[in-house]
Design goal:
The chain is an alpha/beta fold. The protein has 2 domains: 82 residues, Ribosomal protein L30/S12 (60s Ribosomal Protein L30, Chain: A); 162 residues, Alpha/beta knot (3-Layer(aba) Sandwich). It is built from 10 helices and 10 strands. The protein has a 6-stranded parallel β-sheet with strand order 7-6-5-9-8-10, with helices on both faces. The chain has a 4-stranded mixed β-sheet with strand order 1-4-2-3. The chain is elongated and about 55 Å long. The two termini are 39 Å apart. 40% of the residues are buried. The N terminus is likely disordered.
Length: 251
């Protein structure tokens, strides 16, 4: 795994402990609230020390300064930034069984990306893919919301999403987009097991070219007064629908 020189900050127990488990050598140091002596703090400090990271016990106000008063839960880590070591092709080559992917077109909000990574990890998706020009990158805020998923689920940023979709089709992966204007509800669609779900940002949706590249468009039925769902909620519905379909075929 290649690393860059400038470290970044992770905050919150889930993000810090996930990095300590996944890549302990990348953790340079952690800062913990000196007023806390509970088991969670002791466990985080002990894991950091075993990994060879420095542990600093500091006032809570200093922790607040790392993220402008964000909810750090009493623990902050400085870690080396990782550069992705695997391309999407390499990830797909290593997949055993039908691939399950989440493609995000225009999701620029870090909290939405973190939530999408979290639900993708929970559903067992093999990767989350986004275009470099219209997407949030992995940041402290993303890692915090992802609760460890940013460390466990590959996030691949591609130069050209349309070209990537064409390459997925060549691998016989169906590309299915969600669109509120689609005529077919998601639950009535006939889908294969190898699927790449495509979602756009809430309100804007997918770009025209991305929509045209999809093999199929489906809509999530809305029974209430709201017109749309948060992208991470929609991602959860789509990914877990694939999980449900796979479980049904394995019976």
């Amino acid at each position: 795994m290649k690393r860059t020189r400038e470290p970044r900050v992770l905050f919150g127990f889930h993000a810090v402990l996930a990095r300590l488990r996944a890549d302990p050598k990348s953790v340079l140091e952690i800062y913990v609230d000196e007023s806390r002596h509970d088991a969670r703090i002791r466990d985080a400090a002990a894991q950091a020390e075993r990994a060879g990271a420095k542990v600093h016990r500091v006032p809570a106000k200093r922790l607040d300064g790392f993220y402008g008063g964000g909810r750090h839960q009493g623990v902050v880590a400085r870690v080396e930034i990782e550069s992705p070591s695997h391309s999407l092709d390499e990830i797909l080559e290593s997949v055993q069984g039908p691939p399950l992917l989440l493609l995000l077109d225009g999701v620029t909000d870090p909290h939405n990306l973190g939530a999408c990574l979290r639900v993708a990890n929970a559903a067992g998706a093999h990767a989350v893919v986004a275009p470099k020009d219209r997407a949030a990158g992995i940041s402290a805020a993303v890692s915090k919301v992802a609760s460890g998923a940013a460390e466990a689920t590959p996030y691949v940023m591609v130069t050209n999403l349309a070209r990537t979709i064409d390459e997925l089709k060549e691998r016989e992966i169906w590309v299915v987009g969600t669109d509120e204007r689609a005529g077919q509800p998601i639950y009535e669609a006939s889908l294969p097991e190898a699927v790449a779900w495509v979602l756009g940002a809430e309100g804007e949706g997918m770009r025209r070219l991305t929509r045209e590249k999809c093999d199929l468009l489906v809509r999530i039925p809305m029974a209430g007064a709201v017109a749309s769902l948060n992208v991470s909620v929609a991602a959860g519905i789509c990914l877990f629908d694939s999980v449900r379909r796979r479980a049904r075929t394995q019976r």
